[in-house]
Amino acid sequence: MGNIQVFEKIAPNYENDERRKIAKIIADAIRQQNPQGNQQTAIDYGCGTGLVGMESLLSNLYQSLNRNGQLLIIDFDYNEAIVSDNVHSGFKQQELIQTMKKIGFTDVKSTTFYHGSQLFMNQDASLFMLEATKN
């Protein structure tokens, strides 16, 4: 089953109370990180199943940012219990930080900000926020 078919299959049931709760947790974390958000432009780019050319995508985002522009990435920490050809298993923060630096981002830092039960693919999981700046 291709990515589009997987998305089409899960999309009708994707929004539920638990997902709305997670969305609020993420929004609150972004607001805490950036209390002056009303003075900036934000783009929410969802990668769906996460099966994209990550380095290529990050390079394109880097090129699109203005000088001193900031990129926030919020995703799941790597979870070895997630084994699937249809979704990624989350990110290893240190590897992602190294990729960001390789692309040219500076002031790269990452922190786990939420742990939840059966949060990702019916497995306990944690969410992280990575911040990076284009100089």
Structural features:
135 residues; alpha+beta; three-stranded antiparallel β-sheet; 4 helices; 35% helix
For the sheet with most strands, the description reads: 3 strands, antiparallel
The proportion of strand residues reads 15-25%
pLDDT average, as an integer?
85
Number of helices: 4
Structure at a glance:
The protein is α+β, with helices and mostly antiparallel strands. 35% of the residues lie in helices and 24% in strands.
Describe this structure in words.
With 135 residues, the protein is α+β, with helices and mostly antiparallel strands. It has one domain (3-133). Helix content is 35%, strand content 24%. The protein has 4 helices and 3 strands; from the N terminus they run αααβαββ. The chain has helices at residues 3-10, 17-33, 54-64, 93-103; strands at residues 70-76, 106-120, 123-133. Strands 1-3-2 form a 3-stranded antiparallel β-sheet, with helices on both faces. β2 (106-120) and β3 (123-133) form a beta hairpin. The longest helix is centred in the first third of the chain and has 17 residues, at 17-33. It is globular. The model has no long low-confidence stretch (mean pLDDT 85).
Q: What secondary-structure arrangement, pairings included, does this model have?
A:
Layout: H1 3-10, H2 17-33, H3 54-64, E1 70-76, H4 93-103, E2 106-120, E3 123-133
Antiparallel strand pairs: 1-3, 2-3
